[in-house]
Write a structure and sequence with these properties.
Layout: E1 6-15, E2 20-28, E3 34-35, E4 46-48, E5 53-61, E6 66-75, E7 81-85, E8 89-94, E9 97-102, E10 106-110
Length: 117
């Protein structure tokens, strides 16, 4: 960022293969970062500061429907080296059964920026 803080934009996409209901996406914030007040796309329905969970309730999705949303995290403390983004969890209902799935895990590598000489 311009102020020298570490910031990272996280983009998530949810795509339904078949019709699903009561879709809920839950993401955990890593310990070092804070959630930026201005969300890029869909604002979360619930933010729990104590457990560091961010939750979106998407309702139902039709077959082939895709929802993409993002948010920004930042840290006043510089982050160097490996930075792990935890897996997001999606819970949905399909044909009367509650199913839980997880996203992929992302590792972000950050290097220090050399100042111009």
């Amino acid at each position: 960022t311009k102020g020298g803080e570490f910031a990272l934009k996280i983009v998530m996409s949810v795509k339904a293969k078949t019709f699903v209901q009561n879709v809920s996406v839950v993401d955990r914030l890593p310990n070092l970062v804070k959630l930026h007040e201005k969300y890029q796309t869909l604002s979360p329905d619930k933010i729990d500061e104590r457990t560091r969970r961010v939750e979106w309730n998407l309702g139902s999705l039709n077959a082939g429907e895709l929802r993409v949303f993002s948010y920004v995290v930042y840290s006043p403390v510089g982050v160097l080296g490996r930075f792990l983004i935890p897996k997001a969890r999606v819970v949905y209902e399909k044909a009367g059964k509650v199913i839980e799935a997880y996203s992929n895990e992302v590792i972000f590598l950050n290097e220090s920026r050399r100042s111009a000489e």
